[in-house]
Each structure stands twice: as C-alpha cells, then as structure tokens.
Amino acid sequence: MLIEDTFHHALTSIKSQWLRTVLIVLAMSIGIASVTVLIALSESARSYIVNEFEALGTHLVIVLPGRTETTGGAPPIFGETPRDLTLEDAGSLSRSPYIAAIAPLTIGVAPVTSAGLERETNVFGSTHELLRVRHLTMAQGIFLPKIDTDKALSICVIGQTIRKELFANTSALGQWLRINDRRFRVIGVLASEGESIGVDFDEMVIIPVASAQALFDTHSLFRILIEAKSREAMIKAVDEIKKIIKLRHEGEEDITIITQDSVVSAFNKILLALTVAVGCIGGISLIVAGVLVMNVMLVSVTQRTAEIGLLKALGASKTQVQWLFLAESILLSLVGALTGLLIGQLVISVIQTVYPKFPVDLPNWGLLSALGVSIFTGLAFGVLPARKAAGLDPIAALAKR
C-alpha cells in the first residue's frame, strides 16, 4: 500500500464521519489556540519589560544611597549608618577610567506655573550628562549646559506635556516658569519620550542639580546614574565605584549598585520561566484533546471491524493497518492545529487592537512548537487504537466478532 493510498483512505474515513471530525478538530483547535495565545502574551510581556530596561540607557549603572541587607534580622546599630550620596561623591567617581558619563539626580515634586496656569509635576535636578545617559532627545532649544555641578542657574528644560499645558499657544523657549517660589527660564523642550519604568519625561521639568538642591533644601542625591564605557568595563566600573565610595565613607560600603544587565537578566529569567509555565498549562488542554482523539479512534476501530478484516484478508500487514489509523489521527490533529492557530492569531489581533501600546506577537518557536506538539499528540494518542486495529484477527473481524 502506497503512502498516497494510506492518506487517501484516511481522508475518506474522515469525510464519512463529519460529526466526529468536527468534535476532534474543535477540541484540538481550542487547545492549540490557548497555547499560542498564552505563549504570545507571556513572551511579549518578557520582551516588553526587557526592552523597557534596555531603553534606560547603554551600559547603565545606578548607585543608590544605603546598602541592601540580605542577611536578615534587624539593621546594624553601630558602624554601618548609611550616608547620603553627595555631589562630591558623584564628582569623585569621574576618576574611574571605566566610566564614560555621570549624571547625579535630585528629585522632587513641586507646582509649576506660567501666565496663571499651574500644574504639579516632577522636577529633576541633574547635569548635561543626563542627556547622554538616558538617551534623551531635544525637540526644541538646548539641554542643560556643561557647567560645574555646584553652580545654580535659573534655567530649565521641559517635557512635551508641560509645554502643551502651560504654553499651548506660544513658544515655550525663552519663557519664564515658576517652580515653587523661584523662576526658571525655559531653554529647551524634550522630544516626546513617553513613560519608561514609571518615569514620564513628558511631564517633567529638568533643572541644574545645584538649583534643585536649593529649591528642595537638600544636599543629598536621590541617585547617581552612570554610563560605563563598554559592557566589559561595566563590571570593573562597579568595583571602582565601591572602592571610591568606601574610601569617602570612612571604609563603609553603604551604597547599593544596580546594573542594567543584572536587572534585565533577572527579569528575562523570571519571565522565560513564566512563558514555559503558561505553555505547560495550555498544554493540558492538548492532552484533553488527545484523550478525545484516542477515545473516538477506539470507537472507530469497533465500527470499522469488518473493513479492517477485509484489508487484512487482502494482504495488508499489521504495520500498514497501524499507519492507516495513525495517518487519520495525524491529519485530524494537523487540521485542528491549523484551525487553532487561526483562532489564536485572531485573538492576538483583537488584543493588539484593544491594547496598541502592548506589542503582542507569537514568536516563531511558539508557532513551530504548537504544530509539533499537535502532530505528536495525534501520534501518541493514536497508537493504542492503531495497535488494536492491527491486532484484529482477519476472520473474526470479517465476522464482526
């Protein structure tokens, strides 16, 4: 019996039992659709979060005041009191040959007003290097100039939302903006950056770091953002930062250092595990569909006993009879898989329409694995009915016993 004869026979059998075929295809398609949608959602969530962190900057290192304790128990009472980070600390880090740019940050919330219009927003105090470290772009004007970090100037750079709310009908450049009780002249407007890891630069005012410290009456820094010269230099830069701060803080390593690579790697591993987990959960529905395929095929063997006996009487071997039923299982599973993929893509398209800012897409490996698992399911759960059919005695089968 030729291969084309085997599949022709399987197709004929499938067409003759349309209700059985519809039930099997429906069960298989639901399983495949659920697997593809779950994989697409989890994989897209992983890519989204990883891309968000990568958008923070290149080779980014974040220095925070205070040390993260991992040993448990109460914080130490003597000898390890965390110190604030200062502009002097940030300046001392410039000695490291592995650091390309340093942007100290002071952050506060204050009302900003112009021509009787007021809006409360976040105010960043930083330096010219913030433009490079955070990969910001200008829509109009210039960014903060290169000046000494301890020099306070009454200038500011605003985001697009602030420009629209306070300077809708006029050019913002050169206008005065009042922050609390101080006035700042607008020298630049950022291009629309959107929100990144909870920070919306469109709703932000950026002023020199010394001006921010005077505005909020503080000498400490919220963070120090650092760009390493390369990925290889990042590890050495971390060691240099620890060494320099330790010398300045009387031998105490009272800072926490977060590298961009470590954060991205941690989230990548967590969300990859989540992708595998939800894929396995969706696979349960495929097992249910496989059980249905097996049960229906066992019933089909009982109904086609005489047909099997005739085939064996005409000389069909056990292997050929087995492949007749396996081919039927594979075809049913494949049709169910293709139907499920179409349903899954339809659901993904609906999600993309409802949530356009969240890119949902099925990776190629998810598509191939769904097809592969469906064919494997058809084979695995079609073996028992096929072996039962191949084991029938020709004479007893022709007598329907």
Give a quick rundown of the structure.
With 401 residues, the chain is of the alpha+beta class. 54% of the residues lie in helices and 18% in strands. Strands 2-3-10-5-7-6 form a six-stranded mixed beta barrel. It has a two-stranded antiparallel ribbon with strand order 8-9.
Q: Please, could you describe this protein's structure?
A:
This protein is of the alpha+beta class and 401 residues long. It folds into 2 domains: 3-53 and 265-398, no CATH class; 83-253, no CATH class. It has 12 helices and 12 strands. The protein has helices at residues 3-16, 18-54, 87-92, 130-133, 160-166, 209-215, 231-248, 260-303, 305-313, 318-354, 364-390, 394-398; strands at residues 60-65, 99-114, 117-126, 138-141, 155-158, 176-179, 182-190, 195-196, 199-200, 204-208, 223-228, 255-259. The protein has a 6-stranded mixed beta barrel. Strands 8-9 form a two-stranded antiparallel sheet. A hairpin with a 2-residue loop joins β6 and β7 (182-190). α2 crosses α10 (318-354). The chain is elongated and about 100 Å long. The chain starts with a helix and ends with a helix. The model is unreliable at 69-81 (pLDDT under 50).
Can you lay out the helices and strands and say which pair or pack?
Layout: H1 3-16, H2 18-54, E1 60-65, H3 87-92, E2 99-114, E3 117-126, H4 130-133, E4 138-141, E5 155-158, H5 160-166, E6 176-179, E7 182-190, E8 195-196, E9 199-200, E10 204-208, H6 209-215, E11 223-228, H7 231-248, E12 255-259, H8 260-303, H9 305-313, H10 318-354, H11 364-390, H12 394-398
Parallel strand pairs: 3-10, 5-7
Antiparallel strand pairs: 1-11, 1-12, 2-3, 2-6, 2-11, 4-7, 5-10, 6-7, 8-9
